[in-house]
Amino acid sequence: MTFAVHGLPVARGVAIGRAVIVASSRVDVAHYFIEPHQVESEVMRVRTARNAVVEEIQRLQEDMPRDAPPELTALLDVHLMLLQDKEMENGVKHWVSERLYNAEWALTTQLEVIARQFDEMEDEYLRERKADLEQVVERILRHMKGAALPVVATPRRRTQQDLLLDDTVDVPLVLIAHDLSPADMLQFKQSVFAGFVTDVGGKTSHTAIVARSMDIPAVVGARLASQLVRQDDWVIIDGDAGVVIVDPSAIILAEYGFKQRQGEVERERLSRLRHTPAVTLDGQHVELLANIEMPDDATAAVKAGAQGVGLFRSEFLFMGRSGNLPGEEEQYQAYRRAVEGMQGLPVTIRTVDVGADKPLDRALKEEAHLNPALGLRAIRWSLADPAMFLDQLRAILRAAAHGPVHMLIPMLAHGVEIRQTIALIEQARADLKARGIAFGDVKLGAMIEIPAAALTLKLFLKYFDFLSVGTNDLIQYTLAIDRADESVAHLYDPLHPAVLRLLADTIAECNAQGKGVSVCGEMAGDIALTRLLLGLGLRSFSMHPAQILAVKQEVLRADTSRLAGWAQQVLHAEEPSLMLTE
Ligand code: PEP
Ligand code: MG
């Protein structure tokens, strides 16, 4: 039966495929397709690991002291029973041979299928056996990790174009999860999935931001999606409307298939603008920059016609490493790769911004503080550990020897933070000089993301060469709305008069003083807001590479001499959003 789940649209387009439900705890399992001739060996990998776990448990049983609690013996019996369960074995075989999933993926998929059945059981004792099943699968996975991969198992990725809808093997897959951390999302960046849905998350949560950077349809904040959708269900993700349609009828499928093809035609049309300079009808040059998460994203940025990187979120180098942070050399190599990848175009490297909805690790998230967005985040985190911060500062300065680099500091609010940061940059330069290591000049910028910063612009302009408005956080902190919380997403409003006032003043003050100013929050990539930002005097926009051409199209159609007066009216309106839809 067809039904729809509503969430928040985060990445444009339509994806049609079968659902792959991934439990949050299992997203770190590799997901790739195998070749048909690898089916046997892949099934064998699971079987060998399972047999090893069986032996392990049998050994435990043999060595069990006589006075061991009876519950323990019973528990081991249950684990043995689950390990030998035919449904598990047959299910794994099915996913490997029918769908060509790699062994780990097949195992966790079948785990999800059986776990669902446990959830639906009336009997509480049986329901609780789900935890045992998870433990057993965890043990098998651990054994598989230890065992070498068969030599033939070269992962093959398929593009969506390779896939045919009516073929049970070669269908596109969409990922449905309760929650994915930004680091998890990054892991899926090169994956086989054609779309994403998560139960939680706001429109500008970092999970949504990474989804957008992948340029595939995604919906977040879909509440119960991961419970309502079953493994393997046919699903349509409408990333424009924020709707997930489950088990669609033939008519709905045809309709969305049409919409999908229209989207492809539109992309094709936009791609012709790649080499067109971004100049408005009245001759204003507009800088369109890229936001990136990893050094290798520079390729996509250049391909999309970006004039530089306006925001390299360096924290993605720090996440998902079990607290083992990258040192100066590793960071230097990464920044250098980004700089070289941009082929002489400037790269704005933002110093690390972890905390809030970007925990370093899943484990650290669990011990999160009460109010993480207001806690030790971004520059506060860096200043709390000067040795770590100095590593990063030196790495950025060294990368600047290979091409134009700007350094951007997140979440500043206090004069003392500004002065401490500048002192540490000086120290980093002095260290490198003393060590005789080459480094380059950098332009220094501050992010305006806290209302306190937007209200003390003179202080910022005294110390910094340029400002970059992080509207995602500026909105969050101005309106006291957690950007990652879907339950207050309806109040997260980029067009709130207070937000517009802070933004307009920042742009105007920088323009008046001849200092560079850009917007690097999600507002910059939203084509519904391009004209307004141009009207407010903005001439530098930084966004996901995938958004650049659509924004360029808006720029080419705009006349800033006409937009300036209108933008002032919007700024003074009681409901600015109504003026944008007129
Ligand atoms: C912002 O806050 O707008 C921004 C660009 O930084 P981030 O989204 O990484 O917090
Ligand atoms: Mg921010």
Give a structural overview.
There is one protein chain. The protein is of the alpha/beta class and 582 residues long. It has three domains: 3-24 and 156-252 and 261-270, Glucose Oxidase, domain 1; 36-153, PtsI, HPr-binding domain (Enzyme I, Chain A, domain 2, Orthogonal Bundle), CATH 1.10.274; 271-581, TIM Barrel, CATH 3.20.20.60. 46% of the residues lie in helices and 14% in strands. It has 24 helices and 16 strands. The chain has helices spanning 39-62, 70-83, 86-99, 103-119, 124-127, 129-146, 182-187, 206-213, 225-228, 250-271, 298-303, 328-341, 362-366, 379-383, 386-399, 415-435, 451-454, 457-463, 471-479, 497-513, 530-535, 548-557, 560-572, 576-581, and strands at 3-6, 8-11, 14-22, 173-177, 193-198, 218-220, 234-238, 243-246, 287-292, 309-313, 347-350, 405-409, 442-448, 466-469, 516-519, 540-543. An eight-stranded mixed beta sheet has the order 1-8-7-3-4-5-6-2. An eight-stranded parallel beta sheet has the order 15-14-13-12-11-10-9-16. Helix 1 runs antiparallel to helix 3 (86-99), helix 1 packs across helix 6 (129-146) and helix 12 (328-341) runs parallel beside helix 15. The chain is globular and about 80 Å long. The two termini are 39 Å apart. Mean pLDDT is 89; it is low at 148-168.
